Amino acid sequence: MGKTIELEIFRYIPEIDEQPAYRSYEVEFEDDWVILDAINHIKDKMDGSLSYRWSCRMGVCGSCGMMINGIPKLTCATFLKDYYPKKVKVEPLLGFPVERDLVIVMDDFMTKLENVKPWMIRDKDKEKTIDKGEYLQSPVQLEKFIQFSMCINCLLCYSACPVYVVDNNFIGPAAIALAQRYNLDSRDDGQDQRNEYIGKHEGIWDCTFVGECSKVCPEDVDPAAAIQQAKVTNTQNFVKSILWPFGGKK
Amino acid sequence: MKPYYRPPPHMFWLHRKPYFMFIIREMTSLFIAGFCLFLLVFIYSLGQGRETFDNMVAFLDSTFMIIVHWIVLVFALYHTFTWFNLTPKVMVVWIGEKKVPEFMVLGAVYGGWIGVSIVIAWLILY
What we know:
The structure holds two protein chains of two kinds.
Chain A: E1 3-11, E2 21-29, H1 35-46, E3 65-68, E4 71-74, E5 88-91, E6 98-100, E7 103-104, H2 107-115, H3 139-143, H4 156-160, H5 162-166, H6 173-183, H7 191-198, H8 212-216, H9 223-243
Parallel strand pairs in A: 1-5
Antiparallel strand pairs in A: 1-2, 3-4, 3-5, 6-7
Chain B: H1 17-46, H2 50-60, H3 63-90, E1 94-95, E2 98-99, H4 102-125
Antiparallel strand pairs in B: 1-2
Helix pairs in contact in B: 1-3, 3-4
């Protein structure tokens, strides 16, 4: 111990506060401390009223996303020593209503996630009974979607996206990336259902390709690429529906 | 529950460099569109007879118009490079079971650009 860093934390307690305020905490830390360690230290030793979400401490659960000096980050993967001796400003993820302190209301994302149907949809005539065996997939078929399946729903991409922050109607990066994850899966037949939802103006066409969603993604999902690729597919489908015999349908 | 709704930051693109560069990239479209409109006016003047066209060429020869064109060129190049560099994210090309590497997609678009430029330069200069 020895070094001390200042954390300026966004505080909002709905039963008491009309407006949020910032409160500063001086925390002694060691070089291997991440910001979540400091926040846990504040909660345990300095101010038990502080509320925030966290779980795994290893960048897997996606719970501890917060704005760190204005940039969305997983606090379990962001080291204090990288900011020392400057102070660290901790705020809840931008673009979402704040439930309490650093806890955001995620309902909007959960609704959108459900709407993209992030599960396997199969045509009835392609469904196999268990005794017919599993649905096989080659490594190449896996490679086409595996990157987009890495999403941990941490919502950093939403906070990095100025389109979503300014206008919450946008379906947003993670939900569209997950739609692509299933659309590109060789075992799935739900593309038409998902494209109907993400093909709306508030879906892929609201994206102006700022690209920050991909830069802040802790899992390298690259949602910006997923959205642009969905735009290409939707455009091809649209052109086919006009020019191809039978609308390009098999 | 009484959630607090934070207002979106005013002028978000002035807060961080990547957002600022994004707005610059978007703004370059205005310069490209302006140049395209000017090109149409230029072609129109060609159809209005020798005198109108000569006046147009004399107008283009002014220092002011040369500076304007240099500015437009800088923005057009920024527009081209930023969008070309994003191409591999949009175009995922598979040949059989092999994914074409990003540098080859980039090479194809830059190669195409250089090729078309050479053809146009040849048409104008010879």
